[in-house]
């Protein structure tokens, strides 16, 4: 896994993302400014980024679950004509995320760059860290605003309400403590848990993650047998943070990341919940199962040295979800 080191792309020969026991350690996203309705500073970073139509651009990957959060929020909040978007190719190259500028669907619409890291260094010439998606770009000042998915979706949730007729709040104040608690649980053991299992470099590190992951899935299945959504009767941020991992689980994580004790389709309530979210208006348009498999099963010397992409499993998210009585 390569990184930028003081603005230069290098292979990660020092293996900065693993601990002494082979455990995967996800680094923090370093660029943390906020777009706000009035341009004032947000919880982190500097101010000056005012919400305006046409000013901001999202860089995403269709196969990345962290980017999927932002794609979903842009769709849910009807911001397609407010915030423009570019998709990198789902299969990374030797220098990370790449564009195909001969293709309208995977080109860099702003600069025509070949690699996403080239866009990063346009903003931060001495950038050090992972070149990740989603990344929010300010076209007015030509700089990166933020590359932390959890913060980007909070901005999309409320700060652009002046420019959309959908002002649904997925992080309502009266549910924030409950949402935060669920988010912490699902991030630790599921969203990031699948990566800690899949990127583990030792048997010990792998097994340390698999047990808590499936204990958490069991717990969520039980919870969803008693309530419609993770924070009660209404869809919230907690659901849209979990969904991208669940929709990829059976197609990618079960095989590519060895998360194979059970599949999501084995869970009565979780599988129905997953189908219900999938069937909500516009959500299916954000999903590409084949791209997920292509992205996670790409040729990799550690996880998939031959680069063979499996044909299965057969998945049908359109069958009735059975959640109406809960």
Description:
By secondary structure, this protein is of the alpha+beta class. Helix content is 35%, strand content 8%. The chain is built from nine helices and six strands. It has helices at 65-76, 116-123, 149-158, 176-191, 193-198, 203-224, 237-256, 268-278, 289-296; strands spanning 3-5, 8-10, 56-61, 84-88, 135-138, 143-146. A four-stranded mixed sheet has the order 4-3-5-6, sandwiched between helices. The protein has a two-stranded antiparallel sheet with strand order 1-2. Helix 1 packs antiparallel against helix 7 (237-256) and helix 7 packs across helix 9. The mean pLDDT is 95.
Quickly describe the structure.
With 326 residues, this protein is an alpha+beta fold. The chain has nine helices and six strands; from the N terminus they run βββαβαββααααααα.
Helix tally equals 9
Mean of all residue-level pLDDT scores: 95
In the CATH scheme, what's the topology name of the largest domain?
A: Glutaredoxin
**Share of residues in helices:** 25-40%
Q: What's the arrangement of secondary structure elements?
A:
Elements: E1 3-5, E2 8-10, E3 56-61, H1 65-76, E4 84-88, H2 116-123, E5 135-138, E6 143-146, H3 149-158, H4 176-191, H5 193-198, H6 203-224, H7 237-256, H8 268-278, H9 289-296
Parallel strand pairs: 3-4
Antiparallel strand pairs: 1-2, 3-5, 5-6
Give a quick set of tags describing it.
single chain, 326 residues, alpha+beta, Glutaredoxin, Glutathione S-transferase Yfyf (Class Pi), Chain A, domain 2, four-stranded mixed sheet, two-stranded antiparallel ribbon, 9 helices, 35% helix
